[in-house]
What does this fold into?
Amino acid sequence: MRKYWQIVKITFEEYFEYRLNFLLWRFRNFVSFLTLFFFWLAIFGSRGELLNYQKSQLLTYVVGVAFLRSIVLASRSVDLSGQIRSGELTKLIMWPLGMLQYWFSRDLTDKVLNIFFTIFEIGLILAIFKFPLYFPKNQVTYFWFLLFVIFGVFLYFFISFTIAVVTFWVDEIWATRWLFGIIFLEFFAGAFFPIDILPNWLTKIIYLTPFPYLVFSPLKIWLEQLSGFMITKAFLVCLAWLVFFWRLSLSLWERGAKNYGAYGG
Amino acid sequence: MEDNKNLKFQISNLRLLRVWLKMSSMAAQSQLLTNWAGVMFLVGKVVRFLMFFLFLFIVVGAVGSLVGYNRQQVILFFLIFNLIDITTQFLFRGVYQFRQSVVSGNYDIYLVRPLPSFLVPVFGFMDIQDFITLLPLAFYLGWYLNSGSVTITTINFLVFLLLFANSLVLAFAFHLFVCSICILTTQIDPLVWIYRDLTNMARFPTDIYQKGIQLVLTFTIPVIILITVPAKALLGLLSWQMIVFAFLISGIFLFGSLKFWQYALKRYSSASS
It folds into this structure.
């Protein structure tokens, strides 16, 4: 455990080495938040409710997306692809470290830093605009929300790790990550807008993918818009995807590592 | 004498066009080599377009209007955003690869060629995938304008064409500025991505933002001049003062960018070569 704590510390120091890159990354996230925030403010205008969301609920959703981007979608395991391609992985696999644990430790550092900055940025906007946020009325909601967020963190980690490991076989990994790890993920996870405003048939298809359980489901739970039955159903589907990607990432890693040619290393 | 000068200018431009076409053909061939990646990029671009289109259609349809624009107008803003965004990506994708040339010192090879020094850095890598997405988009936009969804007059359309060309000049100025920064600092990605994020803010009519943000989007990275102004011109919502202002801003940016490029070029150290 101590060695992974050291990984966390080293990753933390790396961020302070490349401060500008991190600050620019935060700036990009902030711009993305501002765009959505002002769009929804303009859409609501003086309306109280729209598309089954109260104004406070939808603005809470936008703020929630910003936080869950930091908690769930912030990740460093994307770097694994570059390490496989460059041959740098050779150095890593010679260390007495579990690969999943190593990358998860780096992910955790990334998440902690991102959460810290998100609190500051969103806090600033909330202080300026002073709009009411929606807080759950039922205590058990907090428990379910927290559980879904933890599941989301692991699910995203295994999805991201799986995509990265594909680099063992595919040279052009950026296209795969862009399609599945950015486009599908951001739209189908509800990171741009709540997916239940889309036509019913499309929403049903999206529910079958692993993506809604990363952002959309936890936020719907927070907004108390899911019944007990729906939460249980979402939980089981999320669990199934989690087990699937955990097994898939491990299996692909084991096969890939056996065939690893250390190109460029 | 004057005729002779004009002829030389035309021949020179034709030569540049031929060089650009040759570079573009080579870039297209290298992109088409990785078929699977190309298909995934295309699918992603189409999905992103359709999802945002559907989103705007549903949300603006539910409220009737967005900051005074009806659904058809908001969709037109979105289409113009895509047209300008994809055209600039298609033309200026070379910028994304310029850092590698600077870091490796390979840029020397291009500097000794009898070509404008910015040709390869800015125009050196045409993106065929953007070109493929641009064609159906332009076709759909043409159909949309003809369908009567929004009222477009001939004069507004002509002003739009001029402002569209102005946007490309402005985008060129920005990309050249980024290349200059790259020569001085060897960094390019963060600036390009900030540009992309800020232009994404114009996916919706920029009137939704507070006045302070609108000022930033007019004078820092002039996203409003780049995207919102041509769209408003098409709808006939632009005063002549704003049209003049748009050309003026582009002119200032182009002049500043060319000067800065010359400055950066003098400091190019040809590292690693």
Observations:
- The beta strands of chain B are 65-66, 69-70.
- Chain B has one domain: 2-266.
